[in-house]
Amino acid sequence: MTKTVLVTGGAGYVGSHCCKAFASAGWAVITVDNLSRGWRDSVRWGPLIECDIRDGTRVRGALEMYKPDLVAHFAALAYVGESVTDPALYYANNTAGTLALLESMRAAGCDRILFSSTCASYGVPQHVPIDEGHPQLPINPYGWTKMIIERMLEHYGRAYGMASVSLRYFNAAGCDPDGEIGECHEPETHAIPLMIEAARSPDRPFTVFGTDFPTLDGSAIRDYIHVKDLAQAHLLAGEMLIRQGGVHVFNLGTGVGTSVLELVEAVARIAGAAPAVLYGSRREGDPPKLVASFEKAARELGWHPTNSQIDFIVETALRWRDHPSAARRSSH
Prior knowledge:
Helix content is 41%, strand content 17%. It has 332 residues and is α/β, with parallel strands linked by helices. The protein folds into 2 domains: 4-174 and 224-252, 3-Layer(aba) Sandwich (Rossmann fold); 191-222 and 255-330, Alpha-Beta Complex (UDP-galactose 4-epimerase, domain 1), CATH 3.90.25.10. The strands form 4 sheets. It has a 7-stranded parallel β-sheet, sandwiched between helices. A 3-stranded mixed β-sheet has the order 12-9-14. The longest helix is centred in the N-terminal third of the chain and has 22 residues, at 87-108. The model has no long low-confidence stretch (mean pLDDT 94).
């Protein structure tokens, strides 16, 4: 029988790529999104229910109508800087929004959820690579909202039997290799789209924040994972939840770090033009190196990041940048 997944935030960057992965595997896909930061034209694999996850009446109605085997929860605000200047917005949307979703799920008898979490819950790393047992000590409200949700899922599992998987992403990057969907934020804060823009438009330079880190070239090192690999991990985790239930946490990264200056070189190599670059001071709280251990996901989910070579990530992002849908959004 066809399995059904209800995807909150399915019009967003990672959510839309996961919708495609589920649909490609034969699942029926239902998207719930208020379109505050997502894109209507990214909803291509099933119906869109345009509402906020805090609208319990409509969310419960969708759950009762479609009876999903699984909820995949991506709906969240995700700008670290914004979370610092307006934490109330983040706690209301991310944390209270998830509480409302969980209560709608309980009322509708839906008891399996995949949660889009983040490595920001770890804070400044005490060791690298970071495994799931690393202490969670967030240094910004965004990271706190995600960590609190993970605790909520543990408690809902213990008290109500709700099964969950929390997937802690490192740096999501790249775009659908088929060019159907891609990455576009307003404002854009992710490094690769900004570097591509700086290569195309020298009057819009990319700022390297910090060249005095204790790394080989002095710039910060991050673990970039292709969004298609993230989507595949969600599919595998969803199938595992249906088979066995439980409460689980997995890191999603590559185990390989790429420095900001190495990323600039990769964009120059693939784009055929060097990004215009400015050099700024370190941002407060920026750790020198964030790299994941994905051994647990490999062992328990059978997952490996097979699409996350940095040149391929940049190539797919560049291809999307030239796609008509991306052009329409940039002029939006």
